[in-house]
From TrEMBL:
Pathway: Lipid metabolism; peroxisomal fatty acid beta-oxidation. One of its GO terms (cellular component) is peroxisome. This is acyl-CoA oxidase. GO terms for biological process: fatty acid beta-oxidation using acyl-CoA oxidase; lipid homeostasis. Its cofactor is FAD. Residues 365-536 form the Acyl-CoA oxidase C-terminal domain. The keyword Oxidoreductase applies. One of its GO terms (molecular function) is fatty acid binding. Gene3D superfamilies: Butyryl-CoA Dehydrogenase, subunit A, domain 2 (2.40.110.10), Butyryl-CoA Dehydrogenase, subunit A, domain 3 (1.20.140.10). It comes from Rotaria sordida. Belongs to the acyl-CoA oxidase family. It catalyses: a 2,3-saturated acyl-CoA + O2 = a (2E)-enoyl-CoA + H2O2.
Length: 546
């Protein structure tokens, strides 16, 4: 994230000065934005950078307790610089110039001691990401040269005059970049979880059939009903991430188009991050439980994945706040659709101008996409009407009072987007029938499983009947499980994780799970003594008097 900022937020002269130092690790940087009192609400960050024209430098301060930078990875003990997000003030403090980014040295390059005016340390033990060296930072009258403000878009000259030469929204490119690539990390983690659970289920035997033969737990319909929806969601997330990443990279090549499409990419990245982290965290827990007692061992690999995904629900923006950002965009687009008859709206919401899907007995892949689009369209329109009943121009308070409904709308839109992305990928694979048929089966599982979980909407809007949903759940879904069963292990092997990456006794490629469990158990340090020293100490003390 820091390197990306140095590449995208600096002038050509600054790139020549700073990038080689960062790429060679002569300087190491943390991205210092989140504060003790403010995280998602970026505009209210309190750290200050005041320009002093007499010394051609900025004076940096964290003036309040809540302005303390808190959580940046690597800040605790590792990095010697930070990329600091701070409110810029020119000598006339009555006219703040908004948030800007500064490259700030915080430690001596030889001794690694904190510099004068710098207080930094580790924030303490947290639930996951224990390797992250997350830290805090306080600054008191720390001076940096004027040229260490990242000035690709905005500049301050020697006299202290602020020059705004671009759209302030460009500053948020780094945040979007981080959010999108967090989605990649989350998707990889879920892929690892389902790989471990699926491989273990293929080698674990439990119970017996009528012939007295033991049964692989992966052959139990209930185990398939746990794991195959997780597998289908993983493929949906991988496919959608690739689509979103390609779209974002295309936009970055043209600043004008990027700014034009920024509301859409902001809404998509916000919604996708919130949806993938929430669903992945839940599904990783399903994978852990599906592995029984062995899944509770740290050596299963699933505990660490589960904790990692839990942290993702609040990293790079709280999910509830991000979903509200997506909904604001959707409500605005729906108003434009109704006012302009659906002309010139973004591709991800083009369905809002389509006629509603009409129910039919047999549904193909496109029908599933259309029924999700119609559901999302009706939810958004309903919310628009609710808000307009309150006021022709709804206030933020009215928005907050309806936030439960609005968050649901954002999730519905993301399910629609995922469905369409998955469908497009199935069509692209049509030249390879053996691949496309399996992708189709995964698509049906993802669509029906999601539809079942959100069945109330489809029934309420009369898009599908309760009987239709029951038929899909009890007949179509189990049929898809049976068709996918021969390919389940191959579908997780396709993620191509090395055993070293999984670090799991249960997810070994060679299937030798019991040997791995025993080997790891024997390597436990407490097994180095036949009689533990603590027991001997206890025996000589308390037990000797009994």
């Amino acid at each position: 994230m820091s390197l990306h900022s140095l590449e995208t937020m600096t002038t050509e002269e600054q790139k020549r000065q700073f990038l080689p130092l960062a790429q060679s690790f002569h300087i190491t940087t943390a991205y210092a934005q989140t504060e003790l009192g403010h995280g998602t609400d970026v505009q209210r960050l309190e750290t200050e950078a005041v320009f002093d024209p007499t010394t051609d430098s900025f004076i940096l301060n964290t003036p309040t307790l809540t302005s303390t930078k808190f959580w940046p990875g690597g800040l605790g003990r590792t990095v010697n610089h930070v990329l600091l997000m701070a409110q810029l003030y020119t000598p006339d403090r009555n006219h703040p110039c908004g948030l800007q980014m500064f490259l700030v040295q915080i430690r001596d390059l030889k001794t690694h001691e904190p510099l004068p005016g710098v207080e930094t340390g580790v924030i303490g033990v947290h639930f996951a990401h224990t390797f992250g060296d997350n830290g805090y930072l306080r600054l008191k009258n720390v001076r940096i040269p004027r040229t260490q403000m990242l000035m690709k878009f905005d500049q301050v000259d020697e006299q202290g005059k602020f020059h705004n030469q671009s759209d302030a929204r460009l500053l948020y490119g780094t945040l979007l970049h981080a959010r999108i690539y967090l989605c990649e990390s989350v998707t990889v983690a879920l892929a690892q979880a389902i790989t471990i659970a699926m491989r273990y289920s293929a080698v674990r035997f439990q119970g017996q059939n009528s012939n007295g033969n033991e049964i692989r737990i992966l052959d139990y319909p209930l185990q398939q009903a746990k794991l195959i929806p997780c597998l289908s969601a993983t493929y949906a997330f991988v496919i959608t991430f690739m689509k979103l990443d390609n779209y974002f990279n295309e936009l970055k090549t043209n600043e004008e188009i990027y700014l034009e499409q920024l509301p859409e990419i902001h809404a998509l990245s916000s919604g996708f991050k919130a949806y993938t982290t929430l669903i992945s965290e839940r599904m990783a827990q399903v994978c852990r439980v599906a592995c029984g007692g062995h899944g509770f061992l740290v050596g299963s690999g699933l505990v660490g994945i589960r904790n990692f995904l839990d942290a993702g629900c609040t990293a790079e923006g709280d999910n509830v706040v991000l979903l509200q950002e997506t909904t604001r965009y959707l409500l605005k687009v729906m108003q434009e659709v109704e006012e302009n008859n659906g002309k010139h709206i973004d591709s991800s919401v083009a369905y809002l101008s389509l006629p509603l899907w009409s129910s039919r007995t047999t549904m193909n892949l496109d029908d599933y996409c259309r029924v999700f689009e119609s559901r999302s369209q009706l939810l958004i329109k309903e919310a628009c009407n609710t808000m307009l009943e309150l006021s022709s121009s709804p206030s933020s308070d009215e928005f907050l009072n309806n936030s439960i409904q609005l968050v649901h709308i954002a999730n519905a839109h993301m399910e629609t987007y995922l469905m369409r992305a998955f469908y497009e990928q199935v069509n692209k694979a049509s030249q390879h029938p053996s691949i496309s048929s399996i992708l189709e089966q995964l698509f049906y599982v993802f669509a029906i499983h999601t539809l079942r979980n959100e069945s109330a909407d489809f029934i309420r809007f009369k898009l599908l009947s309760a009987d239709q949903i029951y038929e899909l759940e009890t007949r179509t879904l189990p049929d898809m499980y049976s068709q996918l069963r021969p390919n389940l292990v191959a579908l997780v092997d396709a993620f191509d994780f090395h055993d070293h990456e999984l670090d799991s006794c249960l997810g070994r490629y060679d299937g030798q799970v019991y040997e791995a469990l025993m080997e790891r158990a024997r390597l436990n340090p407490t097994n180095g003594h036949k009689v533990h020293p603590a027991w001997l100490s206890l025996k000589q003390g308390t037990l000797s008097t009994l």
